[in-house]
Design goal:
It holds the Pfam family MLTR_LBD. GO terms for molecular function: DNA binding. InterPro entries: Cro/C1-type_HTH, Lambda_DNA-bd_dom_sf, MLTR_LBD. This is Helix-turn-helix protein. The protein is α+β, with helices and mostly antiparallel strands and 271 residues long. It is elongated. It has a five-stranded antiparallel sheet. It contains eleven helices and five strands.
C-alpha cells in the first residue's frame, strides 16, 4: 500500500474519528496532554515511536495500520507480514491445519482479511456442487461464493436472512478496519440480485442465524458457524486470519454429515 501521501496526523485523526474519540478522550487514555496530541495531529510536533505505539493501542488499530502509522512517522514497522507458507510460519500453518482437520466431518475453512479462502478441510467440497467454475478460481472469495446467483445462493433456503447476516457482518468489519477493499466488496455484494425465500426467519429465541443449505436428494443441511482468530498474533498475516467452523444445527444435519462418504482432498490456496 502506498503511504507516501499519509502523515501521522492524517492517520491519527482518521482513526480517532473512526473510534468516536475526541482529542481529550484519546489524550487521557494515552496519558498525553490534549495540547501535545493536537500539535501531533496538526504536524506542529513529532511523536516518538513509543508514543505512536501507545496511541495505536488506545485506538485499537489493526496491526497493518500500526505499521503504516510508524512508517508515516519515519520509523520501521513493528509487525512483520509473512505468507502463511513461509518457513517461519510453519507452526502457525500447522495449527490452522490441525483445527480444520480436527473439525471433520463438519466443514471448516480459513479466510484472509478480504474473505479470500486460504485453507479448508475436505468436508467443504461436497457443499460446493453446482457452483460456477469462475467462483472457484483462486482467489476464492467465500462471501461472493455464498451470495452470488451462480454460487450457493440458489440453494440457501433462508437466503434473505443469511444475506442480511453476512452483509451486516461485512459492514461492521469495513467500518472497524477502514479497508477500502472491504467497502468495495460490500457494495458489490449488496448490488447482487437475489430472490427472497419464503421460509420463515429464525425464531426470536434462536441462538444464531443458521445457514440452511439444500443438497441433492432434497436434503437440507442446517449449519451454525463459529469464528476463531489468533488473539495474540504479532504477525500481520496471522492477525488477519479467521477460521470459520460450521456445526450441525439439528440432529438431521448431524446424521447427514456423519454418514461416511469419500472425501476429496482438502481445498485451499495459501500464498
Amino acid at each position: 500500500m502506498d503511504t507516501t501521501a499519509e502523515s501521522v496526523g492524517d492517520l491519527l485523526r482518521e482513526w480517532r474519528k473512526r473510534r468516536r474519540f475526541s482529542q481529550l478522550d484519546l489524550a487521557s487514555e494515552a496519558a498525553l496532554s490534549t495540547r501535545h496530541l493536537s500539535f501531533v495531529e496538526s504536524g506542529r510536533a513529532s511523536a516518538s515511536r513509543d508514543m505512536l505505539l501507545r496511541l495505536a493501542e488506545q485506538l485499537a488499530m489493526p496491526l497493518r495500520i500500526r505499521n503504516r502509522l510508524l512508517l508515516a512517522g519515519g520509523f520501521a514497522p513493528e509487525h512483520p507480514e509473512r505468507a502463511l507458507a513461509a518457513p517461519d510460519m510453519t507452526a502457525a500453518r500447522e495449527a490452522v491445519e490441525a483445527v480444520l482437520a480436527a473439525h471433520m466431518p463438519f466443514p471448516a475453512l480459513a479466510v484472509d482479511r478480504h474473505w479470500n479462502l486460504v485453507l479448508a478441510n475436505a468436508a467443504l467440497t461436497p457443499l460446493l456442487a453446482d457452483v460456477a467454475a469462475e467462483l472457484l478460481t483462486p482467489p476464492v472469495n467465500v462471501l461472493r461464493l455464498s451470495l452470488h446467483p451462480r454460487g450457493l445462493a440458489p440453494r440457501i433456503e433462508n437466503l434473505a436472512e443469511w444475506r442480511h447476516h453476512l452483509l451486516n457482518r461485512l459492514a461492521r468489519q469495513s467500518d472497524v478496519t477502514g479497508d477500502p477493499v472491504l467497502a468495495g466488496l460490500l457494495a458489490e455484494l449488496s448490488a447482487l440480485p437475489f430472490r427472497a425465500s419464503r421460509t420463515r426467519p429464525a425464531a426470536a429465541n434462536a441462538v444464531a442465524v443458521p445457514l440452511n443449505l439444500k443438497q441433492d436428494g432434497g436434503v437440507c443441511l442446517s449449519l451454525l458457524s463459529t469464528t476463531t482468530v489468533f488473539g495474540s498474533a504479532m504477525d500481520v498475516t496471522l492477525a488477519e486470519l479467521t477460521l470459520e467452523c460450521f456445526y450441525p444445527a439439528n440432529a438431521a444435519t448431524r446424521a447427514a454429515l456423519l454418514t461416511p462418504f469419500s472425501f476429496p482432498d482438502a481445498v485451499g490456496d495459501s500464498s
